[in-house]
Amino acid sequence: xxxxxxxxxxxxxxxxxxxxxxxxxxxxxxxxxxxxxxxxxxxxxxxxxxxxxxxxxxxxxxxxxxxxxxxxxxxxxxxxxxxxxxxxxxxxxxxxxxxxxxxxxxxxxxxxxxxxxxxxx
Amino acid sequence: xxxxxxxxxxxxxxxxxxxxxxxxxxxxxxxxxxxxxxxxxxxxxxxxxxxxxxxxxxxxxxxxxxxxxxxxxxxxxxxxxxxxxxxxxxxxx
Lengths: 121, 93
Hints:
A: mainly alpha, 4 helices, B: mainly alpha, 3 helices, elongated
């Protein structure tokens, strides 16, 4: 039992660093989606979903790296706040875009390359 | 490995900055800045762990708070063109 605990404490920083790296790679994937999707709704979809997921993975990694309990509690507070406010701000953003009259691209228009960069609806 | 994660977060911030600079509509820019704020929070935490000063998480928490309030304030301003909306209920709508 003591050996298992020793091994767990030995690999804990490596697992934390690896999860932090996975979170960063997920952030890059979300940014690529933000660059390549055709209109506002799909872009916010990519950004919102990937943000919550990548943030959760990276903060779990930082929790495994945390040296003291104070820092772990601060990380949990950051996670809780971002987990509540990320979807809230995405919802407010999309609601404002819809009320402002932006129409989502559907059908063939969504497949045209670089269509959204020249003209706004 | 934490350095590689910080570098990856910096790359993500730069990609989102491209979208924030050339986004065709206002809402693209606001969405890009909102996502960029989340990445900056993670970046502050990661660099704090990289330099051995995890007290920077206080700054990250403050940045998260300010990011949310900024997004909501920008959306409210561009919807009503004012920060002080009169507190009356419209009859229709």
